[in-house]
Amino acid sequence: MTAVAENEKILTPEIDAFIAKWIDKPGNLIMVLHRVQEEFGYIPRQAAFEVAAALDIPVAKIYGVITFYHFFKLTKPGKNRIAVCMGTACYLKGGQNLIDECERKLGVGLNTVTEDGEFSVEAVRCIGCCGLAPVVTVNGEVFGGVSNKQMVKIIEQFEDK
């Protein structure tokens, strides 16, 4: 394991306290990784090393968990995170068309960030709003029954913020 120099430390005291609370509990790694991602929007490399040291586990195990579960991210998302639902109902009602529209409007593919760092686009599994299909979230705000034209307007709405 790699020692973490104090001046390189990026985990906050709140995350350290969270780790201390979960240190001896089963499933602690997943809970800690969720908390780290909640703080940063992704799992920074340095954070993975710090978590490994705090939980006394190999960094390889942390990366194994991060890469196994689709909800953990290793790259920093855009300021505005667009998530297009690709669950069955949303897919059948045009979810892929919304992804294509985002790519056209923003000039980026899935799981990438615009050059200015403002937007990232990801496909996600069921958001749980099937009756509103197709569904998109931007920074957690839910938009239902979204058409391609509405997708462009939603993006423009967040460009102005």
UniProtKB/TrEMBL annotation:
[2Fe-2S] cluster binds at residues 85, 90, 126, 130. InterPro entries: NADP_DH_HndA-like (IPR028431), NuoE-like (IPR002023), NuoE_dom (IPR042128), NuoE_N (IPR041921), Thioredoxin-like_sf (IPR036249). One of its GO terms (molecular function) is oxidoreductase activity. Pfam families: 2Fe-2S_thioredx. Belongs to the complex I 24 kDa subunit family. This is NADP-reducing hydrogenase subunit HndA. Binds 1 [2Fe-2S] cluster. The gene is hndA_1. Keywords: 2Fe-2S, Iron, Iron-sulfur, Metal-binding. It comes from the Bacteria. Its cofactor is [2Fe-2S] cluster.
